[in-house]
């Protein structure tokens, strides 16, 4: 059976890409064709309109699409998670210098950002931050980061949508002062001499739910085979011994740049924070380990709470409607528990 699965170029697409390229899908009787999408909005629409059979997708966006909150409403389900964590906030070198936090610790960085953001807003020149989509953990993490510094993001900071592959160029061109994006684009910005990783998503919201495998809720007879293929690929990705091969796969197949060493470091949580070479070891920075793949309805409830907190959705039953879209039963049935 031939299937087309969409993805956005990010390190957390690894299980989907590995399933297609390394034979895991073929072993399940599937001919899995990869479709690299330029933005989350494009992927959302192509999935809703039936141009894609499945997708590597932002968890909140899958829920928003299914609930009719973003783009064409689609009857979707989430039978598998793909990762936890993976995001970071990167700011321009000029912004980091102006912030001048007392240390690299999250409270001090957030406080310094809050002071500067309020000052710039009072001058009529608010800072501009990029996020990958309004319905994303990135947007919610930016709000949590601002709150940690005593700042209400609304009214002080201009938030704009920039697709992940375009974030580094937008920073280079001065269109944004910083961005929250998934790996490896933060590290690529640092390696390009353009910015400084100011905060890790795993510090802002530990074990933050992220991307999911999203399928049509009905009529996807291929679901068990696809779940098994992506799960087996995910277990391969989780093995540290496969990290060099995975870095090569992402460089060649996902358009994540030629620097395999950078990709391998990023996958392992060995991060270089700035052009001076300040580094940090953060093993939880991007979790692709075996424990992340079974979808947890509690993650959908967390997304629903964030949506409600920033005024994107409301309703007493929002959390349970969101949780119902996560299908651990399908995962268990496909993988044997």
Automatic annotation (TrEMBL):
<keyword id="KW-0997">Cell inner membrane</keyword>
<keyword id="KW-0472">Membrane</keyword>
<keyword id="KW-0067">ATP-binding</keyword>
<dbReference type="Pfam" id="PF13379">
    <property type="entry name" value="NMT1_2"/>
</dbReference>
<keyword id="KW-0547">Nucleotide-binding</keyword>
<keyword id="KW-0813">Transport</keyword>
<keyword id="KW-1003">Cell membrane</keyword>
<dbReference type="InterPro" id="IPR044527">
    <property type="entry name" value="NrtA/CpmA_ABC-bd_dom"/>
</dbReference>
<dbReference type="GO" id="GO:0012505">
    <property type="term" value="C:endomembrane system"/>
</dbReference>
<dbReference type="GO" id="GO:0005524">
    <property type="term" value="F:ATP binding"/>
</dbReference>
<protein>
    <submittedName>
        <fullName>NitT/TauT family transport system ATP-binding protein</fullName>
    </submittedName>
</protein>
